[in-house]
Amino acid sequence: MTFAIHGLAVARGIAIGRAVLIASSRVEVAHYFIKPDQIRSELTRLGEARDAVIQELQRLQQDLPKDAPPELGALLDVHLMLLQDDQLGAGVRHWIKERLYNAEWALTTQLEQVSRQFDEMEDEYLRERKADLEQVVERVLRHLKGAAVPVAPPPPRAPRQSELLLEDTQDVPLVLVAHDLSPADMLQFKKSVFAGFVTDVGGKTSHTAIVARSMDIPAVVGARSASQLVRQDDWVVIDGDAGVMIVNPSPIILADYAFKQRQGELERGRLARLRNTPAVTLDGQRIDLLANIEQPGDTEAALAVSAVGVGLFRTEFLFMGREGKLPDEEEQYHAYRRAVEGMHGMPVTIRTIDVGADKPLDDRHDDAHLNPALGLRAIRWSLSEPAMFMTQLRAILRAAAHGKVYLLIPMLAHAREIRQTLELIDKARAQLDQKGVPYGPVKLGAMIEVPAAAMTLPLFLKYFDYLSIGTNDLIQYTLAIDRADESVAHLYDQLHPAVLKMVADTIAQAKAAGKEVSVCGEMAGDPSMTRLLLGLGLRSFSMHPSQILPVKQEILRADADKLAPWAQSVLESEEPAALLQA
Ligand code: PEP
Ligand code: MG
To answer: Of 13, 161, 276, 424, which has the maximum CB count within 10 A?
Structure first.
Protein backbone atom coordinates (compact mmCIF):
# COMPACT_ATOMS: atom_id res chain seq x y z
CA MET A 1 0.00 0.00 0.00
CA THR A 2 1.28 3.44 -0.92
CA PHE A 3 1.33 6.08 1.81
CA ALA A 4 3.06 9.39 2.49
CA ILE A 5 4.80 10.65 5.60
CA HIS A 6 5.29 14.36 6.09
CA GLY A 7 8.25 15.98 7.79
CA LEU A 8 10.51 18.99 7.29
CA ALA A 9 12.36 19.63 4.07
CA VAL A 10 16.03 20.02 4.90
CA ALA A 11 18.10 19.00 1.92
CA ARG A 12 16.84 19.34 -1.58
CA GLY A 13 16.30 16.87 -4.37
CA ILE A 14 14.59 13.56 -4.93
CA ALA A 15 15.91 10.16 -3.85
CA ILE A 16 14.36 6.87 -4.85
CA GLY A 17 15.57 3.68 -3.27
CA ARG A 18 15.16 0.91 -0.75
CA ALA A 19 14.82 1.66 2.94
CA VAL A 20 17.67 0.73 5.24
CA LEU A 21 16.40 1.01 8.79
CA ILE A 22 18.46 2.05 11.74
CA ALA A 23 16.65 0.93 14.85
CA SER A 24 17.01 3.13 17.90
CA SER A 25 18.44 1.51 20.98
CA ARG A 26 19.02 2.54 24.54
CA VAL A 27 22.71 1.78 24.16
CA GLU A 28 24.46 4.13 21.78
CA VAL A 29 25.77 1.94 18.97
CA ALA A 30 27.89 2.55 15.92
CA HIS A 31 26.45 1.82 12.49
CA TYR A 32 28.78 1.05 9.64
CA PHE A 33 29.30 -1.36 6.79
CA ILE A 34 31.95 -4.04 7.06
CA LYS A 35 33.92 -5.34 4.10
CA PRO A 36 33.01 -8.78 2.74
CA ASP A 37 36.27 -10.22 4.06
CA GLN A 38 35.34 -9.07 7.55
CA ILE A 39 32.14 -11.16 7.76
CA ARG A 40 33.83 -14.04 9.52
CA SER A 41 35.54 -11.87 12.13
CA GLU A 42 32.34 -9.91 12.69
CA LEU A 43 30.42 -13.13 13.31
CA THR A 44 33.14 -14.22 15.73
CA ARG A 45 32.95 -10.89 17.54
CA LEU A 46 29.21 -11.30 17.84
CA GLY A 47 29.51 -14.93 18.99
CA GLU A 48 32.04 -13.97 21.64
CA ALA A 49 29.84 -11.19 22.97
CA ARG A 50 26.85 -13.52 23.10
CA ASP A 51 28.88 -16.24 24.88
CA ALA A 52 30.16 -13.69 27.37
CA VAL A 53 26.59 -12.68 28.19
CA ILE A 54 25.52 -16.33 28.53
CA GLN A 55 28.34 -16.91 30.99
CA GLU A 56 27.46 -13.74 32.85
CA LEU A 57 23.85 -14.85 33.21
CA GLN A 58 24.84 -18.37 34.23
CA ARG A 59 27.11 -16.94 36.91
CA LEU A 60 24.29 -14.74 38.14
CA GLN A 61 22.05 -17.79 38.28
CA GLN A 62 24.57 -19.80 40.29
CA ASP A 63 25.14 -16.98 42.73
CA LEU A 64 21.47 -16.32 43.36
CA PRO A 65 20.93 -16.12 47.10
CA LYS A 66 18.69 -18.87 48.50
CA ASP A 67 16.05 -16.39 49.57
CA ALA A 68 15.93 -14.64 46.18
CA PRO A 69 12.38 -14.42 44.79
CA PRO A 70 11.72 -17.40 42.48
CA GLU A 71 10.74 -15.03 39.63
CA LEU A 72 14.33 -13.88 39.44
CA GLY A 73 15.62 -17.33 38.56
CA ALA A 74 12.81 -17.76 36.06
CA LEU A 75 13.68 -14.43 34.47
CA LEU A 76 17.30 -15.40 34.03
CA ASP A 77 16.08 -18.63 32.41
CA VAL A 78 14.02 -16.64 29.96
CA HIS A 79 16.99 -14.40 29.15
CA LEU A 80 19.25 -17.39 28.59
CA MET A 81 16.63 -19.00 26.41
CA LEU A 82 16.24 -15.86 24.30
CA LEU A 83 19.98 -15.66 23.82
CA GLN A 84 20.19 -19.24 22.70
CA ASP A 85 17.11 -19.00 20.50
CA ASP A 86 18.03 -18.97 16.88
CA GLN A 87 15.30 -16.61 15.76
CA LEU A 88 17.45 -13.79 17.02
CA GLY A 89 20.81 -15.30 16.09
CA ALA A 90 19.89 -16.34 12.55
CA GLY A 91 18.41 -12.94 11.81
CA VAL A 92 21.46 -11.12 13.09
CA ARG A 93 23.75 -13.31 11.03
CA HIS A 94 21.61 -12.55 7.98
CA TRP A 95 22.12 -8.78 8.34
CA ILE A 96 25.85 -9.27 8.76
CA LYS A 97 26.30 -11.69 5.88
CA GLU A 98 23.84 -10.33 3.37
CA ARG A 99 23.93 -6.63 4.12
CA LEU A 100 27.37 -6.26 5.64
CA TYR A 101 26.02 -4.44 8.70
CA ASN A 102 28.37 -4.32 11.67
CA ALA A 103 27.33 -6.60 14.54
CA GLU A 104 25.73 -3.86 16.64
CA TRP A 105 23.65 -2.59 13.75
CA ALA A 106 22.63 -6.14 12.80
CA LEU A 107 21.60 -6.82 16.37
CA THR A 108 19.46 -3.72 16.77
CA THR A 109 17.89 -4.27 13.34
CA GLN A 110 16.90 -7.82 14.24
CA LEU A 111 15.66 -6.69 17.64
CA GLU A 112 13.40 -4.23 15.89
CA GLN A 113 12.03 -6.91 13.58
CA VAL A 114 11.37 -9.40 16.38
CA SER A 115 9.91 -6.65 18.57
CA ARG A 116 7.35 -5.88 15.90
CA GLN A 117 6.33 -9.53 15.91
CA PHE A 118 5.98 -9.43 19.69
CA ASP A 119 3.83 -6.30 19.41
CA GLU A 120 1.43 -8.13 17.15
CA MET A 121 0.95 -11.05 19.54
CA GLU A 122 -2.43 -11.52 21.22
CA ASP A 123 -1.00 -13.17 24.30
CA GLU A 124 -0.09 -10.54 26.86
CA TYR A 125 2.56 -12.72 28.53
CA LEU A 126 4.36 -13.20 25.22
CA ARG A 127 3.98 -9.52 24.36
CA GLU A 128 5.77 -8.66 27.54
CA ARG A 129 8.74 -10.81 26.60
CA LYS A 130 9.74 -7.95 24.35
CA ALA A 131 11.19 -6.12 27.32
CA ASP A 132 13.27 -9.18 28.17
CA LEU A 133 14.57 -9.38 24.67
CA GLU A 134 15.54 -5.71 24.78
CA GLN A 135 17.45 -6.25 28.01
CA VAL A 136 19.30 -9.23 26.61
CA VAL A 137 20.25 -7.38 23.44
CA GLU A 138 21.36 -4.43 25.53
CA ARG A 139 23.72 -6.71 27.43
CA VAL A 140 25.22 -8.06 24.21
CA LEU A 141 25.60 -4.53 22.85
CA ARG A 142 27.45 -3.47 25.95
CA HIS A 143 29.85 -6.35 25.45
CA LEU A 144 30.37 -5.41 21.84
CA LYS A 145 31.01 -1.77 22.64
CA GLY A 146 34.56 -0.57 22.47
CA ALA A 147 35.53 -2.69 19.48
CA ALA A 148 37.35 -1.10 16.54
CA VAL A 149 35.15 0.71 14.05
CA PRO A 150 36.26 0.18 10.48
CA VAL A 151 34.50 2.14 7.81
CA ALA A 152 33.75 0.86 4.36
CA PRO A 153 31.21 2.03 1.83
CA PRO A 154 28.37 -0.38 1.23
CA PRO A 155 29.02 -2.56 -1.77
CA PRO A 156 26.68 -2.08 -4.70
CA ARG A 157 23.87 -4.55 -4.29
CA ALA A 158 22.36 -6.26 -7.30
CA PRO A 159 18.67 -5.44 -7.65
CA ARG A 160 16.12 -8.19 -7.36
CA GLN A 161 14.54 -7.87 -10.76
CA SER A 162 11.08 -8.96 -9.67
CA GLU A 163 10.94 -6.06 -7.26
CA LEU A 164 12.48 -3.43 -9.44
CA LEU A 165 10.14 -0.73 -10.53
CA LEU A 166 12.74 1.43 -12.20
CA GLU A 167 14.14 0.69 -15.59
CA ASP A 168 17.85 0.83 -16.34
CA THR A 169 18.84 0.61 -12.71
CA GLN A 170 22.15 -1.04 -12.10
CA ASP A 171 22.46 -0.68 -8.35
CA VAL A 172 19.59 -0.15 -6.01
CA PRO A 173 20.12 3.13 -4.16
CA LEU A 174 19.81 2.84 -0.40
CA VAL A 175 17.84 5.30 1.67
CA LEU A 176 18.42 5.58 5.38
CA VAL A 177 15.43 5.71 7.75
CA ALA A 178 16.09 6.20 11.45
CA HIS A 179 14.52 7.56 14.59
CA ASP A 180 17.51 9.83 14.97
CA LEU A 181 21.09 9.91 13.82
CA SER A 182 23.85 11.12 16.05
CA PRO A 183 26.27 13.57 14.43
CA ALA A 184 28.91 10.84 14.79
CA ASP A 185 26.73 8.38 12.87
CA MET A 186 26.14 10.99 10.23
CA LEU A 187 29.85 11.36 9.70
CA GLN A 188 30.19 7.62 9.23
CA PHE A 189 27.45 7.72 6.65
CA LYS A 190 29.04 10.65 4.93
CA LYS A 191 31.62 8.17 3.70
CA SER A 192 28.92 5.83 2.42
CA VAL A 193 26.74 5.94 -0.60
CA PHE A 194 23.26 6.58 0.73
CA ALA A 195 20.97 8.31 -1.69
CA GLY A 196 18.95 10.10 0.98
CA PHE A 197 17.67 9.87 4.51
CA VAL A 198 14.72 10.42 6.79
CA THR A 199 14.61 10.78 10.56
CA ASP A 200 11.68 10.84 12.97
CA VAL A 201 13.08 13.74 14.95
CA GLY A 202 14.95 16.95 14.27
CA GLY A 203 14.26 20.52 13.24
CA LYS A 204 15.34 22.42 10.14
CA THR A 205 18.62 23.55 11.63
CA SER A 206 19.27 20.60 13.91
CA HIS A 207 22.73 19.22 13.43
CA THR A 208 21.31 16.17 11.72
CA ALA A 209 19.81 18.48 9.11
CA ILE A 210 23.02 20.45 8.82
CA VAL A 211 25.12 17.37 8.14
CA ALA A 212 22.48 16.23 5.64
CA ARG A 213 22.98 19.44 3.73
CA SER A 214 26.71 18.94 3.84
CA MET A 215 26.25 15.45 2.36
CA ASP A 216 24.19 17.05 -0.37
CA ILE A 217 21.60 14.28 -0.45
CA PRO A 218 17.83 14.68 -0.23
CA ALA A 219 16.67 14.49 3.37
CA VAL A 220 13.57 14.88 5.49
CA VAL A 221 13.70 15.25 9.27
CA GLY A 222 10.95 15.48 11.86
CA ALA A 223 8.99 12.75 10.08
CA ARG A 224 7.59 11.63 13.47
CA SER A 225 7.02 7.88 13.26
CA ALA A 226 8.65 7.15 9.91
CA SER A 227 11.02 4.60 11.39
CA GLN A 228 8.04 2.71 12.81
CA LEU A 229 5.97 2.77 9.65
CA VAL A 230 8.61 1.93 7.09
CA ARG A 231 9.94 -1.60 6.84
CA GLN A 232 13.38 -2.77 5.92
CA ASP A 233 13.68 -2.89 2.11
CA ASP A 234 10.48 -0.97 1.39
CA TRP A 235 10.74 1.14 -1.75
CA VAL A 236 10.64 4.78 -0.80
CA VAL A 237 10.78 8.16 -2.47
CA ILE A 238 12.24 11.08 -0.55
CA ASP A 239 11.18 14.49 -1.73
CA GLY A 240 13.69 16.74 0.00
CA ASP A 241 12.10 19.87 -1.47
CA ALA A 242 8.63 19.19 -0.11
CA GLY A 243 9.67 17.33 3.07
CA VAL A 244 7.73 14.22 2.16
CA MET A 245 8.51 10.53 2.03
CA ILE A 246 6.36 8.22 -0.09
CA VAL A 247 6.42 4.58 0.91
CA ASN A 248 5.79 1.80 -1.60
CA PRO A 249 5.02 4.24 -4.42
CA SER A 250 2.79 3.05 -7.24
CA PRO A 251 4.36 2.94 -10.73
CA ILE A 252 2.61 6.21 -11.66
CA ILE A 253 3.92 8.05 -8.61
CA LEU A 254 7.31 6.57 -9.16
CA ALA A 255 7.41 7.70 -12.79
CA ASP A 256 6.39 11.18 -11.68
CA TYR A 257 9.21 11.39 -9.16
CA ALA A 258 11.73 9.86 -11.54
CA PHE A 259 10.83 12.74 -13.90
CA LYS A 260 11.27 15.32 -11.11
CA GLN A 261 14.59 13.72 -10.24
CA ARG A 262 15.81 14.12 -13.81
CA GLN A 263 14.62 17.75 -13.85
CA GLY A 264 16.59 18.35 -10.67
CA GLU A 265 19.69 16.86 -12.22
CA LEU A 266 19.30 19.11 -15.27
CA GLU A 267 18.96 22.13 -12.98
CA ARG A 268 22.11 21.13 -11.15
CA GLY A 269 23.89 20.81 -14.44
CA ARG A 270 22.80 24.35 -15.33
CA LEU A 271 23.97 25.68 -11.97
CA ALA A 272 27.33 23.92 -12.34
CA ARG A 273 28.09 26.28 -15.21
CA LEU A 274 28.23 29.13 -12.68
CA ARG A 275 31.16 27.52 -10.93
CA ASN A 276 33.78 29.84 -12.41
CA THR A 277 31.60 32.92 -12.65
CA PRO A 278 32.67 35.51 -10.07
CA ALA A 279 29.97 36.28 -7.48
CA VAL A 280 29.32 39.90 -8.47
CA THR A 281 25.96 41.68 -8.29
CA LEU A 282 24.44 43.56 -11.22
CA ASP A 283 25.75 46.81 -9.73
CA GLY A 284 29.25 45.40 -9.57
CA GLN A 285 29.60 44.48 -5.89
CA ARG A 286 31.81 41.48 -5.23
CA ILE A 287 30.36 39.05 -2.71
CA ASP A 288 32.44 36.50 -0.79
CA LEU A 289 30.93 33.03 -0.83
CA LEU A 290 32.65 30.81 1.69
CA ALA A 291 32.14 27.20 2.73
CA ASN A 292 31.01 25.61 5.97
CA ILE A 293 32.89 22.36 6.59
CA GLU A 294 32.86 19.61 9.20
CA GLN A 295 36.05 17.76 8.32
CA PRO A 296 39.36 18.72 6.69
CA GLY A 297 38.53 16.63 3.60
CA ASP A 298 35.46 18.79 2.96
CA THR A 299 37.73 21.47 1.50
CA GLU A 300 37.59 19.50 -1.75
CA ALA A 301 33.85 20.12 -2.02
CA ALA A 302 34.49 23.79 -1.18
CA LEU A 303 37.02 24.14 -3.99
CA ALA A 304 34.76 22.28 -6.41
CA VAL A 305 32.28 25.16 -6.22
CA SER A 306 34.97 27.87 -6.11
CA ALA A 307 34.42 28.93 -2.50
CA VAL A 308 36.77 31.79 -1.64
CA GLY A 309 37.58 30.35 1.77
CA VAL A 310 36.12 28.44 4.69
CA GLY A 311 33.80 30.63 6.75
CA LEU A 312 33.11 27.98 9.37
CA PHE A 313 34.98 24.80 10.22
CA ARG A 314 32.86 23.07 12.87
CA THR A 315 35.73 21.39 14.68
CA GLU A 316 33.50 19.52 17.13
CA PHE A 317 33.02 16.82 14.52
CA LEU A 318 36.66 15.80 15.06
CA PHE A 319 35.80 15.08 18.67
CA MET A 320 32.65 13.00 18.21
CA GLY A 321 32.14 9.26 18.28
CA ARG A 322 35.58 8.69 19.80
CA GLU A 323 34.52 6.63 22.78
CA GLY A 324 36.13 9.13 25.12
CA LYS A 325 39.52 9.28 23.35
CA LEU A 326 39.63 12.92 22.35
CA PRO A 327 42.12 14.03 19.67
CA ASP A 328 45.39 15.29 21.13
CA GLU A 329 47.25 18.43 20.02
CA GLU A 330 49.18 16.66 17.25
CA GLU A 331 46.09 15.07 15.75
CA GLN A 332 44.19 18.35 15.86
CA TYR A 333 47.12 20.29 14.45
CA HIS A 334 47.33 17.91 11.48
CA ALA A 335 43.58 18.12 10.88
CA TYR A 336 43.54 21.93 10.96
CA ARG A 337 46.70 22.15 8.88
CA ARG A 338 45.14 19.84 6.30
CA ALA A 339 42.14 22.14 6.03
CA VAL A 340 44.35 25.24 5.83
CA GLU A 341 46.62 23.75 3.17
CA GLY A 342 43.60 22.35 1.36
CA MET A 343 42.37 25.90 0.74
CA HIS A 344 45.66 26.99 -0.88
CA GLY A 345 46.13 30.33 0.82
CA MET A 346 42.47 31.27 1.07
CA PRO A 347 41.23 32.05 4.60
CA VAL A 348 40.02 29.22 6.83
CA THR A 349 37.82 30.08 9.79
CA ILE A 350 38.36 27.51 12.50
CA ARG A 351 35.73 27.61 15.21
CA THR A 352 36.66 26.24 18.59
CA ILE A 353 34.69 23.23 19.75
CA ASP A 354 30.93 23.62 20.04
CA VAL A 355 29.72 20.52 21.83
CA GLY A 356 26.65 20.14 23.98
CA ALA A 357 22.95 20.56 23.13
CA ASP A 358 22.27 18.32 20.13
CA LYS A 359 25.98 17.63 19.56
CA PRO A 360 26.99 15.62 22.63
CA LEU A 361 30.35 13.92 22.85
CA ASP A 362 29.58 10.20 23.29
CA ASP A 363 30.91 9.93 26.79
CA ARG A 364 29.29 13.08 28.00
CA HIS A 365 25.76 12.42 26.94
CA ASP A 366 23.83 13.65 29.89
CA ASP A 367 20.08 13.43 29.63
CA ALA A 368 19.71 14.67 33.17
CA HIS A 369 19.88 18.25 31.96
CA LEU A 370 16.49 19.20 30.69
CA ASN A 371 17.63 22.19 28.67
CA PRO A 372 20.94 21.16 27.10
CA ALA A 373 20.77 24.05 24.61
CA LEU A 374 20.87 26.37 27.62
CA GLY A 375 23.50 24.32 29.37
CA LEU A 376 27.23 23.76 29.25
CA ARG A 377 27.69 24.27 25.52
CA ALA A 378 30.35 25.64 23.18
CA ILE A 379 32.63 28.27 24.83
CA ARG A 380 31.03 27.53 28.19
CA TRP A 381 32.18 23.94 27.90
CA SER A 382 35.63 24.99 26.68
CA LEU A 383 36.12 27.37 29.60
CA SER A 384 35.09 24.63 31.98
CA GLU A 385 37.72 22.32 30.43
CA PRO A 386 40.69 24.70 30.13
CA ALA A 387 43.26 21.96 29.46
CA MET A 388 41.25 20.68 26.51
CA PHE A 389 40.62 24.22 25.28
CA MET A 390 44.30 25.14 25.48
CA THR A 391 45.19 22.01 23.51
CA GLN A 392 42.82 23.09 20.77
CA LEU A 393 44.03 26.68 20.78
CA ARG A 394 47.67 25.59 20.47
CA ALA A 395 46.78 23.28 17.59
CA ILE A 396 44.92 26.08 15.77
CA LEU A 397 47.70 28.60 16.31
CA ARG A 398 50.23 26.09 14.97
CA ALA A 399 48.09 25.44 11.89
CA ALA A 400 48.06 29.20 11.31
CA ALA A 401 51.74 28.95 10.39
CA HIS A 402 50.59 27.24 7.17
CA GLY A 403 48.03 29.72 5.85
CA LYS A 404 45.46 32.35 6.63
CA VAL A 405 43.53 31.36 9.77
CA TYR A 406 40.55 33.08 11.34
CA LEU A 407 39.92 31.82 14.87
CA LEU A 408 36.25 31.88 15.80
CA ILE A 409 34.70 31.55 19.26
CA PRO A 410 31.11 30.23 19.57
CA MET A 411 28.31 31.32 21.90
CA LEU A 412 29.95 34.15 23.77
CA ALA A 413 27.57 36.31 25.78
CA HIS A 414 29.49 37.80 28.72
CA ALA A 415 32.39 40.23 28.92
CA ARG A 416 33.92 37.84 31.45
CA GLU A 417 33.87 34.99 28.93
CA ILE A 418 35.53 37.21 26.35
CA ARG A 419 38.30 38.17 28.76
CA GLN A 420 38.88 34.59 29.88
CA THR A 421 39.04 33.42 26.27
CA LEU A 422 41.53 36.10 25.29
CA GLU A 423 43.69 35.27 28.29
CA LEU A 424 43.76 31.61 27.34
CA ILE A 425 44.70 32.46 23.76
CA ASP A 426 47.62 34.56 25.07
CA LYS A 427 48.59 31.72 27.36
CA ALA A 428 48.52 29.23 24.48
CA ARG A 429 50.87 31.49 22.51
CA ALA A 430 53.18 31.81 25.52
CA GLN A 431 53.32 28.03 25.91
CA LEU A 432 54.25 27.60 22.25
CA ASP A 433 56.92 30.32 22.60
CA GLN A 434 58.31 28.56 25.60
CA LYS A 435 58.61 25.29 23.72
CA GLY A 436 59.91 27.01 20.62
CA VAL A 437 57.05 25.62 18.52
CA PRO A 438 56.24 27.75 15.46
CA TYR A 439 52.79 29.26 15.08
CA GLY A 440 51.14 31.91 12.95
CA PRO A 441 48.99 35.01 13.39
CA VAL A 442 45.21 34.63 13.51
CA LYS A 443 42.33 37.02 13.11
CA LEU A 444 40.09 36.70 16.11
CA GLY A 445 36.32 36.55 15.72
CA ALA A 446 33.21 36.03 17.79
CA MET A 447 30.01 34.35 16.79
CA ILE A 448 26.96 36.47 17.33
CA GLU A 449 24.43 33.78 18.10
CA VAL A 450 23.08 34.65 21.53
CA PRO A 451 20.69 37.63 21.69
CA ALA A 452 22.75 39.04 24.58
CA ALA A 453 25.70 39.33 22.22
CA ALA A 454 23.61 40.93 19.46
CA MET A 455 22.49 43.55 21.96
CA THR A 456 25.97 44.40 23.22
CA LEU A 457 27.80 44.64 19.93
CA PRO A 458 30.20 47.46 20.93
CA LEU A 459 31.73 45.10 23.48
CA PHE A 460 32.35 42.50 20.79
CA LEU A 461 33.61 45.03 18.30
CA LYS A 462 36.08 46.30 20.87
CA TYR A 463 37.71 42.91 21.39
CA PHE A 464 37.35 41.11 18.07
CA ASP A 465 38.64 41.57 14.52
CA TYR A 466 35.47 40.25 12.91
CA LEU A 467 31.99 38.91 13.68
CA SER A 468 30.18 35.89 12.30
CA ILE A 469 26.42 35.68 12.77
CA GLY A 470 25.17 32.23 13.74
CA THR A 471 21.56 32.56 12.73
CA ASN A 472 20.69 28.99 13.73
CA ASP A 473 21.25 29.64 17.38
CA LEU A 474 20.30 33.31 17.22
CA ILE A 475 16.84 32.23 16.06
CA GLN A 476 16.63 29.43 18.61
CA TYR A 477 17.53 31.67 21.53
CA THR A 478 15.56 34.71 20.36
CA LEU A 479 12.34 32.82 19.75
CA ALA A 480 12.83 30.40 22.66
CA ILE A 481 12.35 27.30 20.55
CA ASP A 482 14.58 24.26 20.40
CA ARG A 483 16.05 24.09 16.91
CA ALA A 484 16.20 20.30 17.13
CA ASP A 485 12.59 19.82 18.23
CA GLU A 486 10.25 19.08 15.35
CA SER A 487 7.19 19.83 17.48
CA VAL A 488 8.05 23.54 17.53
CA ALA A 489 9.56 23.63 14.06
CA HIS A 490 6.60 25.71 12.80
CA LEU A 491 7.72 28.50 15.16
CA TYR A 492 11.28 28.51 13.85
CA ASP A 493 10.95 31.71 11.87
CA GLN A 494 14.05 33.21 10.30
CA LEU A 495 11.96 36.22 9.23
CA HIS A 496 10.72 37.12 12.68
CA PRO A 497 11.20 40.91 13.01
CA ALA A 498 13.27 40.41 16.19
CA VAL A 499 15.67 38.10 14.39
CA LEU A 500 15.96 40.37 11.37
CA LYS A 501 16.61 43.37 13.58
CA MET A 502 19.52 41.63 15.31
CA VAL A 503 21.00 40.44 12.03
CA ALA A 504 20.64 43.93 10.52
CA ASP A 505 22.13 45.66 13.58
CA THR A 506 25.10 43.31 13.67
CA ILE A 507 25.88 43.89 9.98
CA ALA A 508 25.44 47.67 10.28
CA GLN A 509 27.46 48.11 13.47
CA ALA A 510 30.31 45.89 12.30
CA LYS A 511 30.53 47.80 9.03
CA ALA A 512 30.41 51.14 10.84
CA ALA A 513 33.33 49.97 12.99
CA GLY A 514 35.24 48.92 9.88
CA LYS A 515 35.18 45.24 10.88
CA GLU A 516 34.45 42.22 8.73
CA VAL A 517 31.09 40.53 9.26
CA SER A 518 29.57 37.43 7.78
CA VAL A 519 26.64 35.07 8.30
CA CYS A 520 27.52 31.40 8.73
CA GLY A 521 24.16 30.03 9.91
CA GLU A 522 21.82 28.24 7.52
CA MET A 523 20.23 31.57 6.58
CA ALA A 524 23.33 32.36 4.49
CA GLY A 525 22.77 29.28 2.34
CA ASP A 526 19.06 29.82 1.78
CA PRO A 527 18.63 31.40 -1.68
CA SER A 528 15.28 32.86 -0.62
CA MET A 529 17.17 35.03 1.91
CA THR A 530 20.01 36.15 -0.36
CA ARG A 531 18.41 39.37 -1.62
CA LEU A 532 17.39 40.45 1.87
CA LEU A 533 20.86 39.85 3.30
CA LEU A 534 22.41 41.74 0.39
CA GLY A 535 19.97 44.59 1.01
CA LEU A 536 21.01 44.65 4.67
CA GLY A 537 24.59 45.17 3.53
CA LEU A 538 26.00 41.67 3.93
CA ARG A 539 28.90 40.96 1.61
CA SER A 540 30.22 37.70 3.07
CA PHE A 541 28.13 34.52 3.21
CA SER A 542 29.28 31.13 4.51
CA MET A 543 27.31 27.97 3.74
CA HIS A 544 27.56 24.34 2.78
CA PRO A 545 29.32 23.92 -0.54
CA SER A 546 26.12 22.45 -1.98
CA GLN A 547 24.36 25.81 -1.47
CA ILE A 548 26.99 28.05 -3.00
CA LEU A 549 25.86 27.86 -6.63
CA PRO A 550 22.13 28.43 -5.97
CA VAL A 551 23.04 31.43 -3.79
CA LYS A 552 25.46 32.69 -6.42
CA GLN A 553 22.66 32.58 -8.99
CA GLU A 554 20.63 34.95 -6.80
CA ILE A 555 23.60 37.27 -6.39
CA LEU A 556 24.18 37.48 -10.13
CA ARG A 557 20.57 38.60 -10.59
CA ALA A 558 20.57 41.14 -7.74
CA ASP A 559 21.21 44.87 -7.64
CA ALA A 560 22.54 45.30 -4.11
CA ASP A 561 22.13 49.09 -3.96
CA LYS A 562 18.53 48.99 -5.08
CA LEU A 563 17.80 46.26 -2.55
CA ALA A 564 18.82 48.43 0.40
CA PRO A 565 15.58 50.53 0.73
CA TRP A 566 13.47 47.43 0.14
CA ALA A 567 15.37 45.56 2.88
CA GLN A 568 14.60 48.46 5.26
CA SER A 569 10.90 48.14 4.48
CA VAL A 570 11.12 44.40 5.20
CA LEU A 571 12.71 45.22 8.55
CA GLU A 572 9.91 47.59 9.46
CA SER A 573 7.14 45.27 8.35
CA GLU A 574 4.90 43.28 10.68
CA GLU A 575 4.82 40.47 8.13
CA PRO A 576 8.25 40.39 6.49
CA ALA A 577 7.47 37.05 4.83
CA ALA A 578 4.76 38.66 2.68
CA LEU A 579 7.21 41.27 1.38
CA LEU A 580 9.83 38.67 0.68
CA GLN A 581 7.50 36.70 -1.53
CA ALA A 582 6.33 39.80 -3.39
C1 PEP B 1 24.68 28.85 14.09
O2 PEP B 1 24.27 28.72 15.23
O3 PEP B 1 24.08 29.50 13.21
C4 PEP B 1 25.94 28.19 13.67
C5 PEP B 1 26.48 28.43 12.50
O6 PEP B 1 26.49 27.31 14.53
P7 PEP B 1 25.95 25.82 14.75
O8 PEP B 1 24.88 25.57 13.71
O9 PEP B 1 27.10 24.89 14.61
O10 PEP B 1 25.40 25.86 16.14
MG1 MG C 1 25.60 27.93 16.74
So the answer is: 13
